[in-house]
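Need residues for this backbone.
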């Protein structure tokens, strides 16, 4: 009888450990998926910039990533959605206002173009002007 109670106690402790680690893995997976989407957007922006004389889109009135960069890059809406969201929301990424209408190759490498708008995982990702994706240190202007 005592052995059974000890066994049940050990099993319950181990199951709690597994549940905690699976939540962390799910969060890391979402963060990696979002970073990958931002990399794809970055490649498309850098490829399309010469077509637009190097100038980034200047769409006032919206900060939605798809509304600003969707037609510029020709990428599908699915790339602009990090996670499953309501159909009325176009993108989970927001445009950094400071990048609007600027010439891409004249921007500093650390300037942010797009970033995770919502806290869908532990930390937010950001796409920088040189195309690399890194964790967002502070909200861009």
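Answer:
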């Amino acid at each position: 009888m005592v052995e059974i109670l000890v066994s049940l106690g050990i099993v319950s402790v181990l199951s709690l450990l597994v549940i905690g680690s699976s939540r962390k893995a799910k969060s890391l997976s979402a963060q990696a998926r979002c970073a990958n989407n931002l990399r794809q957007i970055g490649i498309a922006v850098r490829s399309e910039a010469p077509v637009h004389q190097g100038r980034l889109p200047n769409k006032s009135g919206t900060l939605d990533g798809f509304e600003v960069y969707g037609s510029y890059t020709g990428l599908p809406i699915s790339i602009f959605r990090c996670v499953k969201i309501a159909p009325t929301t176009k993108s989970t990424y927001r445009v950094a206002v400071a990048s609007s209408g600027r010439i891409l190759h004249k921007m500093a490498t650390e300037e942010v173009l797009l970033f995770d708008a919502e806290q869908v995982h532990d930390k937010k990702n950001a796409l920088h002007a040189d195309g690399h994706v890194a964790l967002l240190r502070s909200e861009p202007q």
